[in-house]
Specification:
Elements lengths: L2 H32 L7 H21 L11 H26 L7 H29 L6 E6 L3 H12 L5 E8 L11 E4 L3 H6 L5 E4 L6 H13 L3 E4 L3 H5 L3 E6 L2 E6 L7 H35 L5 E7 L5 E7 L14 H15 L17 H9 L6 H6 L4 E3 L6 H4 L15 E3 L1 H5 L6 H13 L3 H15 L7
Parallel strand pairs: 1-2, 1-4, 2-3, 4-5, 10-11
Antiparallel strand pairs: 6-7, 8-9
Helix pairs in contact: 1-2, 1-4, 2-3, 3-4, 9-11
Length: 477
């Protein structure tokens, strides 16, 4: 770890102490001004706060708030903040109960919890902003070399360019093949000269982005880097990704490794369905005014039904009708109950002429079939709101891969079909990453990662990030 990172990790402790202390002070001040109640004298209250502060810091450490992992995303850090502060408050409540103290107003504890969430989060955001600002001047950045010259390397470089907060400065690339790289000026040499290239430069991190490199070569590179205190990372190959979800058991005395499809089993499945039921009901209630207004405008905008039922493929290949607000004139909607064969023929023609996506799933750019109001509905994603009813009925989930039409699924490659292992979702990893502007292969990779690394908190993070993804500018629809 670099000195600047050690400094920022160290400074988090006094900042957290200050923020929690200010939270308790704010809670006392706010509660004492609300009404005349019994409340401890200020000096006695402060003595109590100072006594519990060290325990809070220990809880924060156990919650992973002082871990040295680099580039921990804010939503992951916020989860640890919520866990740490909630555990600290529970400690205070337990102390009150066990000591049988005639305590001050219990609402003070509630207010302290709220203020602590706000203050600690703001404190850490401030530290993060300062750290990102210093990255611009090369202070604290990790000097990086990437091994590989293919598409994965280009994606890593693009990600670093789009997210300077990652804190990397690219020194250059080491070629593993004779591919024509987009980054000619960054090529330092070939993999055969790895040790010579690394030895002649100040390097902090090495990322291997080519999964075809032999294992023996990788082992030698790891030893070489570790001997020089250089961090070595690797983009996993297909088998390594496949083995990310394994369960070890035994059959008599024989060890058995089960390659699990997804963590969404047992209680995970129950919790996900519970989140879907509650979330869809809340979504229907909150967005009902938008849906009612949209339905009324659609009735006046063009003749035809308000809701368009489009056949899609769900979990395990089961077909269902996905609900959307109709965005096209009725004669252009595909399906036997709508435009029929003529609509399908027109769609095939438009796909051939204006398709903007690579892969089995199409996207007609500037689709002429849309009504003016339909174009607005799709740009704002209001056309997707009726899918809350699909979720409530159990056909879909709030979070999951997007469902596609049968004729699109028929064109899937075998590895694409992994996205059919769980229920499709209204939003998902691909939607917060780039929505329909991604090529389908990239979309499928993100969805497969979600399937194999699911957690309830991951669902919550995706849901929280979705509104921000919706307001990002998109290509013309």
């Amino acid at each position: 770890m670099k000195r600047s990172e050690l400094f920022f990790n160290f400074i988090l402790v006094p900042i957290d102490i200050l923020m929690v202390f200010l939270a308790f002070v704010s809670a006392y001040s706010y509660r004492s001004k609300m009404e005349i109640i019994y409340i401890w004298p200020y000096d006695q209250y402060l003595h109590f706060v100072l006594m519990v502060l060290p325990f809070w810091i220990v809880i924060f450490a156990l919650a992973g708030l002082y871990s040295s992992s680099k580039n921990k995303r804010f939503f992951d850090q916020f989860a640890s903040i919520v866990l740490g502060i909630s555990s600290g408050v529970m400690l205070v409540v337990a102390w009150i109960f066990l000591s049988r103290t005639f305590f001050f107003s219990r609402l003070v504890v509630v207010y302290a919890w709220v203020f602590a969430l706000i203050y600690v989060t703001l404190g850490r955001l401030l530290v993060g902003i300062i750290q990102i600002y210093l990255y611009r001047y090369g202070i604290g950045t990790h000097q990086l070399i990437i091994i590989g010259d293919g598409d994965t390397t280009d994606l890593i470089i693009k990600e670093m360019q789009n997210n300077p907060s990652l804190g990397y400065r690219l020194i250059g690339l080491i070629q593993t093949k004779n591919n024509n790289s987009k980054n000619h000026s960054k090529i330092l040499g070939k993999i055969e000269d790895f040790e010579k290239i690394i030895s002649s430069r100040q390097v902090d991190d090495v990322i291997l982005a080519d999964s075809s490199v032999p294992e023996k070569t990788i082992a030698n590179m790891i030893d070489f880097c570790h001997n020089r205190r250089i961090i070595f990372k690797e983009v996993p190959n297909f088998f390594q990704v496949q083995t990310a979800n394994v369960k070890v058991s035994s059959l008599a005395t024989i060890p058995i490794v089960e390659f699990m499809i997804t963590p969404i089993t047992g209680w995970g499945r129950i919790l996900k369905r519970l989140l879907d039921t509650i979330g869809s009901l809340i979504g229907i209630i909150i967005f009902s005014p938008f849906m009612i207004i949209s339905a009324i405008i659609l009735k006046f905008d063009s003749p035809g039904p308000v809701i368009y039922k489009n056949e899609r493929v769900g979990k395990a290949g089961k077909k269902f009708f996905l609900y959307k607000f109709r965005t096209m004139k009725i004669e252009y909607c595909t399906g036997d109950k709508y435009g029929g064969k003529s609509a399908e023929d027109l769609e095939k023609k438009l796909i051939k002429e204006k398709n903007e996506r690579v892969g089995p799933v199409y996207k007609v750019l500037g689709d002429p079939r849309r009504t003016k109001f339909g174009k607005f509905l799709e740009r704002s994603s209001i056309d997707e709101l009726p899918q809350f009813f699909n979720v409530l009925m159990g056909q879909m989930s709030l979070v999951g891969p997007r469902p596609h039409q049968p004729r699109e699924v028929d064109k899937y490659q075998s590895w694409h079909k992994k996205v059919l292992r769980i229920k499709p979702g209204i939003t998902g990893m691909a939607q917060i990453a780039g929505r329909s502007d991604l090529d389908f292969d990239d979309e499928a990779r993100l969805d497969i990662y979600y399937i194999e690394n699911w957690s309830l908190w991951l669902d919550i993070k995706i849901i929280l990030k979705t509104p921000f993804a919706l307001i990002k500018p998109r290509k013309n629809v």
